[in-house]
Specification:
It contains 5 helices and 9 strands. By secondary structure, the chain is of the alpha/beta class.
C-alpha cells in the first residue's frame, strides 16, 4: 500500500507562491489510520489537535488549546518544544500510554547539569487521559515543569487496578487507595 510522504503533500501546494504551507503526516499502525496536518502561516486558529512527536515546531501565538497524542512516547525534549511553540497555552490534553524511554537518562542529566525548565505559565486546564504514569510525574512531580497555581486537573491512568498505583501517588492522593 502506498502512503504519501510529507514531500508528496508539499508538492501539491507549489502554486501557493504567496503562502508558506506546512504539512505533517503521521501513520498509526496500532490505531489503523493516518493523519495529515496542513496549514498556512501565520497559523490563526486557537486550537491545534492531535500533535505528535513529528510536530515540526514553530511559533503559534494564537493557540490556547492543544491535544497531544501518539503511539510513541513523549520525551522531555518534546514537552520543551511544545512549551516554546505555544507560549499562551491555556488547555492541554495528553493521550499517550507509552512509558518514556529516556526518563532515567533525563534524571541523571538533571542531577549533573542545569537543564531547561518547561514552563506553562498560562495553563488553566491539564487533562492527562489514558496516560502512562510517567506523564503524571512529568507534570505534577517534576521540578523542571512549571505550572500556574490555579489549574483544573483531570487524570486517567492506565492501571488495571489500584494495587499498581505507585506509593508516592497514594501519599498525595490518599482517596485513590
Amino acid at each position: 500500500m502506498y502512503y504519501p510522504s510529507n514531500e508528496d503533500i508539499q508538492c501539491t501546494f507549489t502554486s501557493f507562491k504567496d503562502y508558506q504551507v506546512i504539512s505533517c503526516i503521521d501513520y498509526f499502525s496500532k490505531e489503523g489510520y493516518g493523519q495529515c496536518h496542513i496549514y498556512s502561516c501565520p497559523y490563526t486558529l486557537t486550537y491545534y489537535d492531535d500533535i505528535t512527536n513529528n510536530f515540526p515546531g514553530g511559533l503559534f501565538n494564537s493557540v490556547e488549546k492543544v491535544r497531544l497524542f501518539d503511539e510513541r512516547p513523549f520525551e522531555n525534549e518534546f514537552f520543551i518544544r511544545i512549551s516554546q511553540a505555544f507560549p499562551f497555552l491555556k488547555r492541554i490534553t495528553i493521550v499517550n500510554r507509552k512509558p518514556q524511554n529516556f526518563k532515567q537518562e533525563q534524571q541523571l542529566n538533571d542531577n549533573t547539569q542545569k537543564s531547561s525548565n518547561i514552563e506553562y505559565s498560562h495553563l488553566t486546564m491539564l487533562h492527562l487521559l489514558r496516560v502512562h504514569d510517567d506523564y503524571v510525574e512529568q507534570f505534577l512531580f517534576d521540578t523542571k515543569t512549571c505550572l500556574s497555581n490555579y489549574i483544573q486537573l483531570a487524570v486517567e491512568l492506565c492501571f488495571h487496578d489500584c494495587q499498581q498505583l505507585p506509593k508516592h501517588y497514594q501519599n498525595y492522593f490518599p482517596y485513590l487507595e
